[in-house]
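// run 5 | inverse folding | seed 20
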């Protein structure tokens, strides 16, 4: 019974999260800009966190297989 409640809760959180993302307004349009909404924003540190997480996960898998 707890598994059903937990899976229903996770599904509802994901479902309403996706709906809220679709409710966001689009980028503003600028008539003088040839490519509206195409402004790259540097996300500093995210790349390093993803790489560190992947390396940590790979090491954990390697250590588990080594045993």
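// decoded
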């Amino acid at each position: 019974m707890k598994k059903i409640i937990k899976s229903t809760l996770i599904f509802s959180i994901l479902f309403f999260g996706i709906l809220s993302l679709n409710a966001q307004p689009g980028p503003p349009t600028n008539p003088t800009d040839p490519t509206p909404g195409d402004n790259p924003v540097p996300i500093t540190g995210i790349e390093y966190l993803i790489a560190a997480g992947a390396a940590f996960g790979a090491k954990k898998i390697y250590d588990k297989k080594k045993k």
